[in-house]
Design goal:
The protein is α/β, with parallel strands linked by helices. The chain has two domains: about 20-50 and about 300-404, Aspartate Aminotransferase, domain 1 (Alpha-Beta Complex), CATH 3.90.1150; about 70-300, Aspartate Aminotransferase, domain 2 (3-Layer(aba) Sandwich). The chain has 13 helices and 14 strands. The strands form three sheets. Strands 2-9-8-7-6-3-4-5 form an eight-stranded mixed β-sheet, sandwiched between helices. Strands 10-11-14-13 form a four-stranded antiparallel β-sheet.
Length: about 400
């Protein structure tokens, strides 16, 4: 009797670059969860899962407006919503016109729109290293290549700096844009004014666009005179600045982001025309969310204060535990929701994070997850509830001392 063979199909080669099998860490984590073990999750970055008090009486009615029943799509998004976003920037001291704003469902979608706009398959965009691993997937699904440029930590001044020599070496004839995250995730470093000027010169000279992700820009730890908190005012080259409700209001489930477009007038208009075509193809932004956004953006201070208090308190605890620590140090961070621990004496990161989860029930990000060039880095989220954060940190540091 003939045997039936499995059906065959040649799926897109985009997926060939990734190993989609569960790794040892994810398998161990799933096993722990099935056993009902309490995990001290120092990777938790979902603001809706860490005990913040969301004013439901204000958030939810904004979705129930009668006008949400009428569908009037616009490729840039509703004017009233874009005006509310422009007002958000005005409160921050930045002048943005509603006509410059394109709404998206998220910054992830904003990246895909910009990759479609700026580059053909096979061309490349420069991305900082270390940085968030999502870039690799977003670019890979568009058939593009990412080329890294380095961020270096100055141990004397305790500041992360852009290595502009690495940018110069990375640029090729196929390079279309440079990505900057302000502040960077996970280093928490804001771009400095002199760095912004240097980056501007490179983009103008090399005819490159600048893509700037500012989702964490409202969460600064330090006041610095030379810091550029936003690049929405950059007009000498094509500039695309992204943000959204996910971080600004801690409302990732509401799915609203945006792109602010700036640059020389003719180029800006052409870029916006093409962005409209891309957005009009998908029309993905929810009408109820657009109508609700102006009301939600009025609550920015209330919601952000909770997040500020949490990340500051957890960072302070982390600092007190690492002051004069014999084997581990905390790298200085200027903003965002993450902190970086470093030790030259760490055992291999994968071994350490597996041991932490297996023996101590602590989940933490290894440095290689964020594309650090060498071993010895652990990344922790500053969002977890204080009692869980503190216990997780204490267990982590105790384990580190045992392994050196």
């Amino acid at each position: 009797m003939p045997t039936m063979s499995s059906p065959q199909y040649n799926f897109s080669s985009r997926f060939d670059k990734w190993n989609l099998q569960p790794n040892r860490l994810s398998l161990l984590l799933e096993e722990k969860k099935q056993q009902g073990v309490k995990i001290f999750d120092l990777t938790e970055s979902n603001p809706t899962a860490v005990g913040f008090d969301y004013p439901a009486a204000d958030v939810l009615p904004a979705l129930a407006q009668p006008k949400t029943l009428r569908y009037e799509p616009h490729p840039r998004g509703l004017l009233s919503t874009r005006q509310a976003v422009a007002e958000y920037y005005r409160r921050r001291g930045e002048l943005v016109e509603p006509e410059q704003i394109h709404l998206t469902v998220s910054t992830s979608e904003a990246y895909t729109f910009l990759f479609k706009l700026l580059a053909d398959p096979g061309q490349n965009i420069l991305v900082p290293q270390p940085s968030y691993p999502l870039f690799d997937f977003l670019a890979g699904l568009e058939g593009m290549e990412l080329l890294p440029y380095r961020l270096d930590y100055d141990n004397v001044s305790e500041v992360w700096r852009i290595d502009f020599e690495s940018i110069a070496k990375a640029i090729t004839e196929q390079t279309r844009a440079i990505i900057w995250v302000n502040p960077n995730n996970p280093t928490g470093s804001f771009i400095k004014r002199e760095e912004a000027a240097h980056l501007r010169q490179i983009c103008v000279t090399q005819h490159l666009a600048l893509i700037v992700d500012e989702v964490f820009s409202d969460y600064a730890f330090l006041q610095q005179a030379n810091r550029k908190s936003s690049l929405v005012g950059e007009s000498e080259m094509l500039t695309f600045v992204m943000s959204g409700l996910s971080k600004i209001l801690g409302l990732p489930q509401m799915k609203l982001g945006w792109i602010v477009v700036n640059g020389p007038e003719t180029l800006r208009q052409q870029a916006q025309e093409y962005l409209e075509l891309i957005a009009d193809t998908y029309l993905s932004v929810s009408t109820p969310v657009q109508h609700a956004a102006p009301k939600w953006l009025e609550m920015t201070t209330t919601l952000q204060e909770q997040i500020h208090r949490r990340v500051h308190a957890n960072l302070f605890f982390l600092q007190t535990q690492l002051d004069n620590h014999p084997t581990c140090r905390l790298l200085r961070t200027e903003g965002g929701w993450y902190a970086i621990l470093q030790s030259a004496d760490f055992v291999p990161e994968e071994d350490l994070i597996l041991t932490l989860l297996e023996k101590d029930n602590v989940l933490v990000h290894p440095g290689y997850f964020f594309d650090f060039e060498k071993e010895g880095f652990l990344i922790v989220s500053l969002l977890p509830q204080p009692e869980n954060f503190r216990e997780g940190v204490l267990r982590l540091l105790k384990r580190v001392q045992k392994t050196v």
